[in-house]
Structures are given as structure tokens and as C-alpha cells.
Amino acid sequence: MLQTIHDALAPFYLQVKFLHVFFAMIWAFSTAVAYSYYVKGAFLKWERNPEDKTAIQRRNWAIEQFDRGAILEHVAFPVLIITGPLMYWLGPWSVDSTWLMIKLAIICLIFVPMEILDYWLAHFGGNKEMLRKRNLPEKYEASIRLHWKFLKVTTPLVMVFVPLIVWLAVTKP
User: Fold this and answer.
1) The dihedral formed by the CA atoms of 61, 63, 64 and 67, expressed in degrees to the nearest 10
2) What is the overall mean pLDDT for the chain?
3) Start-end of H helices in 108-136
């Protein structure tokens, strides 16, 4: 049965690859502008003036909008998790492909755990808008601070490992 499915999907390898690359672009860049020009600035201003009501309001608004914008990223990532193994199965790849094993290690050890926490922060227990609407100010503030710490830690990782993954996928050294 698996062979029948493989044979039926094999002619569509390039379409699967297109979907993978397209959703990789969405995943990698959907929040880059918002973070760089709105969230980061709002949080840095708040850190310089932690009691400034305007800075707090701007910080809160920016991170809530960031959570909404992360929806694109969080739709794209599962598509990558599906299309990546599908390309491996349909294509000429094996565990002998060092570049692929490095890429998979980065994804499994860095990006999957990062995305799990990111989903939680943006959409589940750490969703700031939900906490605000439920009138949970302490949890709201704690979630904002945790999200900021998360962004401070993950941003350098994204800046290094996203280009590395793209380089590995394109050059296949």
C-alpha cells in the first residue's frame, strides 16, 4: 500500500518541493518586519522607562499584534513538517546526505522546541490578548515578560540557523 501511495505521489515531487520552499519563506519571514520595527522598539523603549504608561501601552499593543501575525508562521510550520519528510520519502535522499542530516538536526533540536513554545506563547496559555480579556493582569504581565525573554534568546538563533538551513538546502555541500 505504501508503495502505491509513493508511486502515485512521486510525479508530484516538484510541487511538494515548491510548497515546502514557499511555506519555508512564510515561516522564516512572516514576523521579521513586525519584530524588527515594532515589537523590538516598543520593548526597548519600555525597558528604558518601565513605569511609562505610554511605553507600556505600546509594548502591550505591539506584542498582541505580533501574536496575531504569528498565525502565518504557525500555519506554515506544520506544512513544513509534512512536506519535508514527504520530499525525503519521494526524493533521492538518504541518511548518507550529510547536509540533510545537519539540516534535520537543526530543525529537530532548535526549531521544533522553539516553535512549540512559540505556539504556546502566541495562541494558548501565553496568549496576551486572551489573558487581558480574561482580566488576568499578573498572568498577562508574566506572559509578556516571558515572550520578550523568548524573543531575545531565539532571535539570534533564527538569524544564524535560518540562513544556514537555506544554504544547506540550496548548496547541498
Assistant:
1) 160
2) 94
3) 112-123, 128-133
Per-residue cell: 49: 522607562
In this prediction, residue 17 has a pLDDT band, given cuts at 50, 70 and 90, of very high
The stretch 120-142 carries a mean pLDDT of 94
Query: Grid coordinates representing 17?
Result: 518541493
Which residue in this structure is represented by grid cell 516571558? 146
Q: Where are the alpha helices (DSSP H) in 10-136?
A: 13-29, 32-34, 40-48, 53-90, 98-106, 112-123, 128-133
Residue 125 in 3-state DSSP?
coil
Q: Would you tell me how many other CB atoms lie within 10 Å of the CB of residue 55?
A: 18
Q: Give the sign of the dihedral formed by CA 135, CA 141, CA 142, CA 143.
A: positive
Model confidence over 31-77: pLDDT tens digits?
888 888 889 999 999 999 999 999 999 999 999 999 988 999 999 99
Longest dimension (CA), the chain: 64
Share of the chain residues as helix, strand and coil, in percent rounded to the nearest 5: 85, 0, 15
